[in-house]
Amino acid sequence: MLNKGPAKKVTIYLNEDTQHHMTPLYDSIMMFLLHRGVSGATATRAMSGFGAQRLLHTPKIEVLAEHLPIRIEFIDSAEKVEEVLPTLYDMVSDGLIEVQDTNIVKSVKKGPKPEPKLPHQRNEGPAKLLRVFIGEADRWHEEALYEALVKKLRMMEIAGATVYRGILGYGAKGHEHRKSFFHISRDMPIMVSVIDAAEKIEAAAQAIEGMLDDGLIVISDVDVIRLVRGQNRTEGSHETGTGS
After folding, report:
1. How many CA atoms lie within 13 Å of 116's alpha carbon, on the beta-carbon side?
2. Are residues 138 and 46 part of one domain?
3. Does a structural domain hold residue 37?
4. Is residue 83 predicted with pLDDT exceeding 80?
5. Which of 33, 89, 102, 119 is at 20 to 30 A from 146, Cα to Cα?
6. What are the backbone dihedrals phi and psi of residue 217, each rounded to the nearest 5 degrees, phi first?
7. What is the pLDDT of residues 100-152, one digit of tens each?
8. Angle, helix 198-209 to helix 145-155, in steps of 10 degrees
9. Where are the beta strands (DSSP E) in the chain?
10. Could you tell me the residue range of the domain that residue 183 belongs to?
């Protein structure tokens, strides 16, 4: 399984009818990558395309349908790519190999059957509470700001976040926001609440500040008591709790 961080992405372009030892080249490449322990690879068949010979391959013309482009793509560590690239170079007699630097943001693999649940554990200690006050109508790149904030916090591996929607409130501008049967506001107050370790809250606050045009960020000292019930040994190891 790949780890988060720098990696290499390899893309191979070739024709569907290209052969390698009496076998379709794309099939030989996929088997080679599988046997050499590459994390994963995908081969896709294009609907149309052209290459250096300036000839358009399309399923609309029967004689050209067998020459449709095939794209093989895989991502792995720089060491693994360096290991398999020389053989791929020799195998691709007619095609294109592209190698790019990339960055793995998330890599998840379902593990074996979980262990039996253990008795609950009690974790406690100092932490920081971060609360962000914004309006429901606030936007970030054509997306609701509160949704963008939660996505950002999740990418930063913050322990948890909770979004609250107010029913009545006003801010620094003095505008009252309320919801009633006769009056439905589209800019109700929103509060995003997060609890985590001090250093992670500091980083989160800096990231959030860059996303706000109008809002309020409040940070408070808190004492956390977290009860972890029915978790196995590999779960629930964080010292702090989720947003509340």
Report:
1. 2
2. no
3. yes
4. yes
5. 102
6. -115, 125
7. 999 998 877 776 766 666 677 777 889 999 999 999 989 999 899 999 999 99
8. 140
9. 5-15, 19-20, 23-24, 41-45, 69-76, 95-104, 121-135, 139-140, 143-144, 161-165, 168-170, 176-178, 189-196, 216-228
10. 121-228
Could you tell me if 159 and 90 lie in one domain?
no
The amino acid at residue 17 is D
Q: Is 58 in contact with 48 (CB distance < 8 Å)?
A: yes
Q: Say how far apart CA 12 and CA 24 lie, in whole Å.
A: 14
Same domain, 141 and 81: no
Asked if the structure places residue 240 within a domain, the reply is no
- Which two structure tokens, joined as six digits, stand for 126? 């100092």
Residues 19 and 95 in one domain: yes
Q: How far, CA to CA in Å, does 14 sit from each of 6, 43, 75, 96, 112? A: 27, 11, 18, 7, 37
- pTM of structure: 0.55
